[in-house]
């Protein structure tokens, strides 16, 4: 099949040339060259981002693919493995970009009948704060005309090729990165009475903040807190002057998120005071929660059922992952779905961000067709 061969060629080239967030120069050049060959006009957004368009006038519908790779050393053993040492498309953004190029090709063929505009948005920097999506929006790249609907997909190793998962409402969580610093004068381990002890304070703080989830959260509201790093100390006979902790807070409810962060600040100061140490908690806010619009989701469910059969369109349980597509979902009615990429004859496969992650390329034409069909339907629907 001609489309499949094209998609595979794009995907393999992109897979061999992974680039880190916001440094996707070769990737952008490749995408622009393919768009040019398709006679799809485009403009640049956030340097390495590219927005192509098919058709003209309103309504406008947008499709998005992220294009960045991860600092992961590939271990798939594939003949088309990464040629950039230390980097790999371990999150499948090579698949996303190839499928969007495929969708652009499909839509271009039907351009004379397209009564509106479809934007194909190749977005840089999904994997790194502040997220390419927020920069692209801040640049005003999706105004005039603003999309009436926006769609994106993510490859998903838990589902076999031929299935998708989507649900209206919350999909992915809001994230905050937490950075604690506990300081005291430090001193001889034999004289703990002469200094505050940041080690003991850190130990108590780590255990205490667990009660944020068990005691301060509404029982039916999902949230997770993980303390993920402890750094401090050098020797068995020295009380250190500093301990640093890191962690992450993830939830769906923005109101509770504020309460949770205030509660963490209070706990940090109170425990520090008890132990005679100085403490700070720095919060770096990540992506907001990703929310699927009901109408956009219904549309994708119908399109997917028509293409794949109703039994292959599954509900999507909200997850504590984060995705910068959330920024678009705050701005435009949006839908985001997970696309099965597990080879159907396999029970399991390596997960996202894993050095052995190897999605099945059989999913490429499915994802390209879904994107094109969703955009086509959204443009059509706006006219009735
Ligand atoms: Zn990722
Ligand atoms: Zn990803």
Task: Give an overview in words.
The protein is α/β, with parallel strands linked by helices and 384 residues long. It folds into two domains: 2-172 and 289-381, Zn peptidases (Aminopeptidase, 3-Layer(aba) Sandwich); 174-285, Alpha-Beta Plaits (2-Layer Sandwich), CATH 3.30.70. Helix content is 34%, strand content 26%. It contains ten helices and 16 strands. It has helices at residues 2-16, 25-37, 93-109, 132-138, 198-209, 211-215, 254-275, 294-308, 325-331, 363-381; strands at 42-45, 49-55, 60-66, 117-123, 149-160, 164-165, 169-172, 174-183, 187-188, 223-232, 238-239, 242-251, 278-285, 290-292, 313-314, 334-342. An eight-stranded mixed beta sheet has the order 1-2-4-3-5-16-6-15, sandwiched between helices. The two termini are 34 Å apart. The model has no long low-confidence stretch (mean pLDDT 96). It binds zinc ion (2 copies). One zinc ion binds at residues 91, 93, 126, 154.
